[in-house]
Fold:
Amino acid sequence: MAATATSLPIAEHAHPDPVHLKRVGLWLFFFSESILFGLFLSARFFLEGIEAEHLDQALGLGITIVLLLSSVTAYTAETAIEHDRRGIAIWGLIGTILLGLVFAAGVGVEWSTAEFSRHEAFGTVFFSMTGLHASHVVSGIVLLVLALIQLLRGRFNSKDHWPISGVVMYWHFVDVVWVFYYPALYLVQGV
Amino acid sequence: MSIFKVGWFVAVALAVLTVVEYIFAAEMADATARFLGLTLSAGTKAGLIMWFFMHLPRVWRGEEVH
Amino acid sequence: MYALISIASGVASGLIGFYVGVGLTALVRVAFGHSPWDAQISITVGYIFGLVGWLMGIGMWGAWGREWFGLPTYARKAPGWQRYFVFNSDHKVIGIQYLVTFVVVFLLAGLLAMVMRAELAQAGNQFLSNDQYNAVMGLHGILMIAVAVAAVIGGIGNYAVPLMIGAQDMAFPRLNALTYWLNPPVALLLLLTPALGGLETGWTAYPPLSVLTENAQLLFNLAIITFGLTSILGGLNFIATIIFLRAPGMTWGRLPIFVWSMFVASWLALLFTQGFAAALLMVLLDRAFGMSFFNAEAGGDPLLYQHVFWFYSHPAVYIMVVPGFGLALELITHFSRKPLFAYKYAVGGLLGILGLSGLVWAHHMFTSGMPNYLHGPFLALTEAISIPTGLIFLSALGTLFMGRLWLKTPMLFAMAVIFNFALGGVTGIFLADVPTDIHLHDTYFVVAHFHYTIVGGEIFALFGAIYYYFPKMTGRMYNETLGKLHFWWMFLGFNVTFFLMHWPGILGMNRRIADYPSSLEGVNLIISIAAFALGASFLVFVYNMVVSWVRGPVAEANPWRARTLEWQTSSPPPIENFPAPPVVRGHPYEYGVPGAVHAIVPTPMPGGAPAGGAK
Ligand SMILES: [Cu+2]
Structure:
């Protein structure tokens, strides 16, 4: 089967939509990260069962609602830029960043007022789980700020907005982690 | 604004579930039932976020044309 | 010059990053009323900043980082050999970077094994103290683990998979470059461990010792968490590549078996590597912040570590050995000149391993004191995994049966894989069964067993693949006589060393200890001599590789008359692999089947090398 250029069909290389490829790659990354979070969650039950020390329930519920709200604003920002509504997208991102900062501050308050120490088992799981999660919140805020700066400079439109979609997906993922961590730390022992 | 409609529905559902979850944890005395109920609620919330906010179906349906 | 600039700016910005990190830590600590320096925290933060600095300096900033700030990107272009020293996103360059790096690491870790065997040639302490022996053994272990995880996947996988599926590159080329350039800091940290007290815990890093020991452990943890990241990102990249970038007509049923094995290993890496990262992160938190994951006094439990750690480290042996199986089957079918026997069952076997490998981890913990009710299930599940493995053996033996064997060096290595792994598999049964394992646990029987599976199963496949792809990668042919000499020398040295090692193991000789009862001296001396012979065999390999790369005879595009796609392009392939994608029409292994066509490759190569497929 000696090949010549003319006698054979010329095919196209597989060119999947680059955004789709990145989306799947990001999901694979989340899949992997969720194992890390899952193992810390398992460590909590392995060491402590459903036992817990006293926590500020009002604060816990408050920051949970704040983080869920930030997901709503992030969704609003992404949907807005998909429809070229730049103004709403900008405010959506700003809102997400602010709510994220409030959440991080709330975790900080919880840390400084906790009545247990990190040297004991419940403290170990509480501080490591919230710390691991908070480190993702902080990196998410940094990424949101980078996206916001570019948005303010006039980049992104309905055809080209993957960085915003990607960052927003990451933010939602961080929220999903908290959806599991919150009841496991605050609620499972009974309020 | 119609383009955000899905977002608001999901937001309301998440809020309701969060409150219900809190009350459930406060009222349910049986530890096993509490654990299972909370797991179910967290799974539902995570599913809502992943399906609607993170556009999970786009993984297999491909990118939609806006 | 380009190479020098690239490496120098990487090192410089890495160092700057390290000092910035240490300085920031000091500022924050002083602000909160602590002393400015805390070894655990300062080194950790400094390392994270230094790692980012190194990556940016080596070229990630220009090729990628600028994009995050909306700036135009650029890539350092370097000619000739210098392209191996820059942030290069070509999968063929990255594959060779991985291979050369990890062959060097392999030889280094092999030297450490020679040191251990010299010490163990006689009972009593010869020239190493117990601590020094631990340090040597720990370093040998973790470096070899790194080789086993990265050499085939990162080296052969990166080089061959895009070519075999008819793609131009990986799905995420810049991520691929990032994955490679994360490795030098890992090597640096591990090689620094002897300076900070040496690894006392071996590569498994069990607490409580790993929490209490020297700061070498800290470097180890940082290094392996980084290494885990490379493994995860690499796996992610392969999965996306294999799903999305296959050439037209390359259906799942026509995928070369090595690509299948890489697909399975990539999923294993993506899912389980976080276990090692999580376990070491917990150790790090215990060390740095006085947390109590493993401090039983405060409610922690050292068994937690073993569960989390083996949750990764059992699947890790499949991350290592599954691509080895894939390579062995690939080579056996090409060199038997007949279709791969029971292709579908072999794929099923690989997927079966993927499904079961996450359910067997506690067979490493039969003597750990975990609850007894776990023994039965983990025994049964571990035995069950020999069923999918058996399917792969079936495929290999069926292909060999009545084949027209072409006994070139790669084929010899591939057949050795089957031989060695059969032995490693049989001894595995005794370790999976609780009653025998309780006696054999932590003895040289275990050492012999896992060297038979990992070295015998994977490293032999790696060397087979290096010989097989040498003409494709370099455009030159290796010396066949020296290749065969290397094979027989290595094969005999390996089998004498590790087969004999079962015996002192059965007699209860403990692994990881510098000394043993003097009644075992004779057999240990023979093992040591055989091990030195095994070590010396690699001199032949290195000589052959270096001389052939520089002035070996020019190789054809397809010296093996293989049908898979990587051989239907020139040696070495052009930067875009195929000018237009091949159109796949049939199964890749239809050797001797009249009229069978695997793929049609549209245009002849620019260099004039023949591009036609082999019949
Ligand atoms: Cu195992």
